[in-house]
Amino acid sequence: MVKTVVLIPTDFSQVCNNAIEHGAEIARITNGELRILHVVNKDSKSQLKEFNKGPEYFSVQLKKIAGSIQDKYKIPVSPLIRQGSIFSEIRKAAKAESATLMVMGTHGKAGVQHLVGSFALRVISGIKIPVIVVQKRIFDNGYKRIVLPVGLDLGFLDKLHWTIQMAKIFDSEIHIFYYYNNKQDVNQTVAKVADLIKSKLILEGIRFREVKALFNKPYLRQLLEYAIAQRADLIILKARMEGLEAPVLFGHADEKMLFNESQIPVMYIS
Predict the structure, then answer these.
(1) Domain 145-265 is classified in which CATH homologous superfamily?
(2) Local confidence pLDDT in tens for the 270 residues of the chain
(3) SS3 labels along 94-147
(4) CA geometry: angle at 228 spanning 226 and 233, to 5°?
(5) Which residues of 191-225 are buried (b: 16+ CB within 10 A; e: fewer)?
(6) Fold agreement between 5-134 and 145-265
(7) Largest CA distance in the chain
């Protein structure tokens, strides 16, 4: 990855400020640029009334944040204001700005603009670029330990591409976590996919380790437990991984990933 354009939606909350820090670090390391977006919708308009502020309030706040981040990280930062639905306007901004990556802060169960639960997943589902979802966990030393689940994933090449890019940026170690069940044909297919992934990682000089899931326990639960136990810095998921016991997107398992107790950032590949 030579250069990135990182898009960060914000509702000016603490968790969105943390997402801005994550995105700024990525942009700095990759010689990239940052776009900080606020969508003015009915929720934010209600805020203006509550704070007794005029319509220019959000623009002023956004410019302050952009200036501060630009001074701190020495990267180009552009503030963006759009009006309408956060779902459609985030998608439009990503396309208009030729964004290559989005970092989104997500609230637990409450937020100014509903970037929570199924709402956050709805935003992710409409974006054609990778999205890193963060909570309040700080960037610290970056994404040094990356967990990569491997199942019957028809889009594994996209996931592998971004895994390699992130590993090169942060000098990461990849933890390959295999799907496994009691069907021999499934396990053989997963093993072939894993062999392709390992050969590519070796070719790229990227460190990795391998772990196989137990067939008698839910795979996604094991994945999250492993990531927490290993103090992972990032989990990389395809938006839909076929062949697992349930689709990864969009269900209860997704919310458990997004709101995991260790607040591990999750990268979703569309």
Answers:
(1) HUPs (3.40.50.620)
(2) 557 999 999 988 899 999 999 999 999 999 999 999 999 888 778 878 887 888 788 899 999 999 999 999 999 999 999 999 888 999 999 999 999 999 999 865 444 444 544 567 777 877 889 999 999 899 999 999 999 999 876 678 889 999 999 999 999 999 999 988 878 888 888 889 899 999 999 999 999 999 999 888 888 889 999 999 999 999 998 865 444 444 444 455 666 777 788 899 999 987
(3) HHHCCCCEEEEECCCCCCCCCCCHHHHHHHHHCCCCCEEEECCCCCCCCCCEEE
(4) 110
(5) eebbeebbeebeeeebebeeebbeeeeebbebbbe
(6) yes
(7) 65
Which residue has tokens 């990239």? 32
Where along the chain do its domains lie? 5-134, 145-265
How far apart are the C-alpha atoms of 129 and 186, rounded to whole Å? 29
Query: Residue 110's closest CA among 265, 259, 262, 257?
Result: 259
How is 145-211 classified by DSSP, letter by letter? EEEEEESS-TTHHHHHHHHHHHHHHHTPEEEEEE---S-HHHHHHHHHHHHHHHHHHHHTT-EEEEE
Q: Which fold has domain 5-134?
A: Rossmann fold (3.40.50)
Q: pTM of the predicted model, to two decimals?
A: 0.89
CA distance 42 to 62: 18
d(CA 168, CA 30): 10
Residue 18 in tokens: 């943390």
Report yes or no: 112 and 12 within 8 Å, Cβ to Cβ. yes
